[in-house]
Amino acid sequence: MRYLATIAFAICHIASPSFAQTDSYTPDAETVLNLIRNDKLELVLPNAMRSNQVDMWIHVGRLGQPNSLEYEFGVVDGYLIFTDTGDRVERALFGGLFTGPGGIRSVDVQGSTEVARAIAGYDYGKTDFSVYMEIREYVTSHDPKTIAVNFSDWLAAADSISYTQMEKLRKVLGPDYAKRIVSAEHLITEYRSRRLLREVVVQANTLEIARQNAMKNLARIVPGVTTIGECNCDARIYYSAKSERIREPHATSWIRHPDYVFKRGDFFAFAGAAKWMDFGEESFGVDTKHHAYIPLEGEFGVPDELQFAWDQTKKAQGIIRDQVKVGMTSGEALAAIVTALENADYIYTPFTDDPADDYKMIQDMLKNTEKSGFYFDLHAMGNNGGSLVTVGPSMAPFRRDRDDFVIQPNHIFAFEFAVHTNLSSRPGFPITINFSNPQAVTELGIEWIQPANNRIHLVH
């Protein structure tokens, strides 16, 4: 027996995780951004231009002027022109390309030094405008029927050309070709939201680091001591057994201010931040919520009615997941989600994205019923903040202008929705629980690229 025990100890000792070596690396933003930029030009741009009936795309940039497409092209000082020649998309540059880390490595047509100097401002005021005629000659040689330019009255990412540069471009093109200018907003939407596998990897790694940081934030909470601000976890109290709210209830939270001290009996959402691959303003976002409960004295778990409300939300998540597929439009997916949840006995509360008014909607629509209500905002995510001007397919009652956008493979979106349930301990004031976690839509359906709200964490 002693011999067997010695062998067993030796096996356990050898297999102990403390002796395992874990590989790690420091992200190389230049290498990754180079892969993303150049592969999107090769693999995404041709289909994006053709599906939007764009023959030529002229991206105008100026050194020293912020540009919303720096993630895609780097810093451009001049005219970066993409032309669909039928078998490929030709790249032409008139001016300078100061791409920095991970920039575009090659162009097919390079303008003259003279036009580059004119664009840069050498001897400004003395340069004859005829120097720009090589750009007109290039455009006319391809005779594009539609010329997309980055201007839009609503989409910030597609509105980077200034008024003076637009007037100058019209003059450069001449009246006949200036009439062919159209907004690049739909082209840019498709180009940015058609994700490469490498972009999904960046998003997934960012989310995992954020999840680990969220757990560290949670571990810092001491009931009766720690404030929301000190937690640094963007906490939103959904229910409190002891605390009264200090403002009208919102659909996004019951209590939410930085000086609030966590108490026993609090049920809340919390988060963690991360910027794993630093692309500056174009770094990939997080927008994830986890949930936790601080048991009262004598409690050993989550109260039944809170657990039921959370379970209703988790159930809805599975129903929504089955409705979103590659090839659907945003409008088709929205209709499918509403129908499926209503068939499962949920009540649709189409939010307006005004937290106070939306909560009044919840109160009104959940009167005299034991059913749960729902809303959803499956908005595009990735290297953007997910705001109302975020490009890409999005399903929400206040984003119906995206109804015709097609969900493409590798679409990254915030799987965000909320379910509202009446509580016997808070009559007339239903709890609304928000689930949010960016995921990806592939040919297989919605794939989890981060854990999808598997449980309520307990704070002891």
Name the features.
single chain; 460 residues; alpha/beta; Creatine Amidinohydrolase, Chain A, domain 1; Creatine Amidinohydrolase; 2 domains; 6-stranded mixed sheet; 4-stranded mixed sheet; 33% helix; elongated
Could you characterize what this model shows?
This protein has 460 residues and is an alpha/beta fold. The protein has two domains: 165 residues, 3-Layer(aba) Sandwich (Creatine Amidinohydrolase, Chain A, domain 1), CATH 3.40.350; 262 residues, Creatine Amidinohydrolase, CATH 3.90.230.10. The chain is built from 13 helices and 17 strands. The strands form four sheets. The protein has a six-stranded mixed beta sheet. Strands 7-8-9-17 form a four-stranded mixed beta sheet, covered by helices on one side. Helix 2 crosses helix 8. The longest helix has 23 residues. The two termini are 42 Å apart. The N terminus is likely disordered.
